[in-house]
Write a structure and sequence with these properties.
heterodimer; A: 20 helices; about 0% strand; globular
């Protein structure tokens, strides 16, 4: 029962925020962090105190949390809380910046606040449904719903670019997800043609006695990869991701990158677990090819990147590629810490990127310089975050990437190591250019610099948490010490 | 089987061709509505009436399909079209006779291919599989080959219809809740897309999706600042 409350609570709060927002805007702004806090508390309670992590109705299990689900639910809920808290403090600063830059009523440059505030919990609620759904049809419905709830969030800055991005996001993701629906139907045919009728019930599908026809499953797997892969940002289906992550405000990018991509990966994982023994090599090969491609394309685009939010977006493509490679070569138990580490650090980075955008009003790497002089706290978090996301120890990603390189076949390990090095070089160069040296061409009004400096808390805490997690993993992870 | 099912399936196939050939957006929207209605009728036609009446669930799903795909979605699209003030698809990337040729060829190929797959269990028609695939292909083709953003939404709906024909044709049971969830998603999607269309037409003075190309990795974002925001 707690699972139902878990996904229904944010949805109800979204409706409340939407309807109270017109008359009581201040109340709506407070309700957002409150609902996130309630969601996080309920998640913690569910994960630690409830023995039965499932909900069934009519003889079928509808919602259930397995290990991977628990991890990703925790990430999603924590990110929701962090983003809600940051939004509460960042929104007034953003209005102030718009008033300073453009004059007049700042709100005309943004979408109505209550729609923005309502979409955030709705987005979190649909993601919770993705994580908990134990019926593949319901999973599809929930994933498509995440697209619908997150699309309006991209339009926060009412610019023509944001409109263009929103259109691309809606169209590319919806067509992609439609492929996944087709793949899910093919899976239905695959189980039926071997004589049983488990429908889309995951509990029945994953039962040992269920026989899955390999030929149909092969077709299903291709469409599932294309479908959920689009949502996850795997190359070559990633076209929407850099645009959406760079145009959306920092808090939204943090949620898109930190939790939505994980949820889509979970969709792929659910199908991966159903693969018949004889098809496992085929499934693994496809996943590994997409993973390596993602890593390669991300490396190429990060090196020559001039836009810091786009750089972070390509870094998300990179880490989704690494996560699939880890799933193929090391297994789930290494992949989940990788996702956790990536979500924490990437969220901190996107929130900091939002602060920088607030202060400088531009996403250009070349225009920003000498941040250590003006925005000291943000500069420290930014450099620290970039080092951690590149896998410099004590990052949790160091441990997971190390085990990938150590366990994968030698040629894969070498390619991954070279590409990771290229990404490290590209990202740290950008970060150092921004933080050190002379002041850049972009001016940062002092009042906005002060505002941006006050927003250090949430990203700072997340960076600290990621570092502690990394230290723990380093301490707990035996293979490194046995070398 | 009475042959009515074959007629319905052939109707769905015919709509694909009509869609490829019409340049007036309103007639495109009408054809999509016709396809939606045919799709809603399909499960009822496929039912073995001699063995009793279908479940309440099946009838309810068909009614929702009819209401949504036959009336609501086309209505939304028509409203979006009027607001965005476009009537015709001018200069598509691939001309109308070329489009028909492509879809006929793709359909022929898919029919030939489906002939090689093992035949379906009895209540399903031989036509179901190739019609589903051809409709999906036609939907994707419309998304790619047309310029106006609103035609892309129509293409998406046709693609989705193709998937639904596959599901119905293969007699897959997904349960009422999932079926309604899928329909709700599509409805909200078209609703949001309609609003976005209106905003795009106001902002850009056109809805040509190929000219939505401001964002690109090759353009260095020295000017990617917020000051290029369009003043309202």
């Amino acid at each position: 029962m707690s699972l139902i409350i878990l996904f229904a609570l944010p949805l109800v709060m979204a409706a409340v925020i939407f309807f109270t927002g017109k008359k009581f805007p201040a109340l709506a702004r407070v309700l957002l962090p409150l609902s996130a806090l309630a969601h996080f508390a309920l998640t913690a309670w569910t994960l630690f105190h409830t023995p039965d992590l499932e909900w069934s109705c009519g003889g079928h299990i509808w919602l259930k949390l397995d290990t991977a689900g628990c991890w990703i639910l925790f990430i999603t809920s924590l990110l929701f809380l962090a983003v809600a808290a940051q939004t509460y403090f960042w929104l007034p600063a953003e209005y102030e910046a718009a008033a300073l830059r453009h004059g007049g009523d700042p709100r005309q440059h943004f979408m109505p606040e209550r729609i923005f505030l309502a979409c955030i919990p709705a987005f979190a609620g649909t993601m919770t449904l993705v994580v908990t759904s134990w019926n593949l049809g319901l999973l599809w419905v929930a994933v498509e719903a995440t697209t619908l709830c997150s699309a309006p969030l991209i339009l926060f800055h009412r610019s023509s670019q944001a409109l263009e991005v929103m259109w691309k996001y809606l169209l590319i993701c919806s067509v992609g997800i439609a492929f996944a629906l087709f793949g899910t139907m093919l899976l239905g045919v695959a189980v039926r043609s071997s004589g049983n009728a488990p429908g889309w019930w995951y509990a029945l599908l994953s039962a040992k006695e269920t026989v899955i026809e390999p030929a149909w499953f092969k077709a299903a797997w291709i469409f599932i990869l294309a479908g959920y892969g689009t949502k996850m940002g795997l190359v070559p289906f990633h076209a929407w991701l850099p645009d959406a992550h760079s145009e959306a405000p920092g808090t939204v990018s943090a949620m898109l990158s930190g939790s939505l991509l994980n949820c889509s990966l979970l969709g792929i994982l659910r199908f991966y677990r159903l693969a018949p023994e004889s098809l496992l090599p085929f499934c693994k090969t496809l996943l590994a090819v997409l993973g390596l491609l993602s890593l390669l394309i991300a490396a190429l685009f990060i090196i020559r990147q001039g836009d810091f939010k786009r750089m972070l977006a390509y870094s998300s493509v990179e880490h989704m590629g690494i996560a699939t490679l880890i799933l193929v070569f090391c297994g789930e138990e290494i992949m989940l810490p990788h996702l956790l580490g990536h979500s924490f650090i990437k969220m901190a980075l996107f929130l900091t990127a939002g602060n920088l955008l607030l202060a400088y009003g531009s996403r250009s790497i070349a225009g920003i310089g000498g941040m250590l002089g003006e925005l000291r706290r943000n500069a420290v978090i930014w450099t620290g975050g970039i080092l951690l996301i590149c896998g410099a120890p004590p990052s949790p990603l160091f441990v997971t990437e190390f085990s990938l390189i150590a366990t994968a076949p030698a040629w894969v390990g070498i390619i991954v190591a070279v590409l990771l090095f290229a990404i490290f070089a590209g990202m740290t160069m950008a970060a150092l250019r921004m933080t050190m040296g002379e002041k850049g061409t972009l001016q940062c009004p002092e009042i906005l610099a002060k505002r941006a400096e006050k927003l250090w808390l949430v990203p700072g805490v997340m960076i600290l948490a990621a570092t502690l997690l990394g230290l723990y993993l380093l301490w707990a992870f035996n293979p490194i010490w046995s070398l | 089987m009475t042959g009515i099912m074959e007629i319905v399936l052939a109707g769905i196939l015919g709509v694909d061709l009509f869609l490829a050939a019409s340049s007036r957006l309103l007639s495109c929207i009408r054809w999509v509505a016709v396809q939606g209605i045919l799709l809603a009728v399909l499960p009822l036609v496929m039912w073995q009436w001699s063995e009793g009446t279908p479940h309440m669930e099946g009838i309810l799903a068909a009614a929702c399909n009819l209401l949504l795909k036959g009336i609501l979605l086309p209505g939304l699209l028509a409203a979006a079209m009027r607001k965005a003030n476009v009537k015709r698809e001018l200069e598509p990337f691939i001309g109308y006779s070329g489009s028909i040729l492509v879809i006929v060829l793709a359909g022929g190929g898919l029919f030939w291919l489906c002939g090689k797959i093992a035949p379906l269990p009895p209540p399903a028609s031989l036509l179901a599989l190739p019609v589903a695939f051809t409709t999906m292909a036609a939907g994707l083709f419309i998304i790619i080959a047309r310029r106006k953003a609103i035609t892309q939404v129509i293409g998406f709906l046709v693609f989705e219809n193709g998937i639904a024909v596959f599901g119905t044709g293969m007699m897959l049971e997904h349960g009422l809740l999932v079926e309604l969830g899928v329909l709700l998603d599509v409805l909200v999607l078209v609703f949001i897309m309609g609003i976005t269309l209106f905003q795009i037409s106001r902002e850009f003075q056109h809805i040509d999706s190929d000219r939505l190309n401001q964002l690109d990795d090759s353009k260095m974002p020295v000017n990617a600042d917020l000051s290029v925001e369009v003043e309202q």
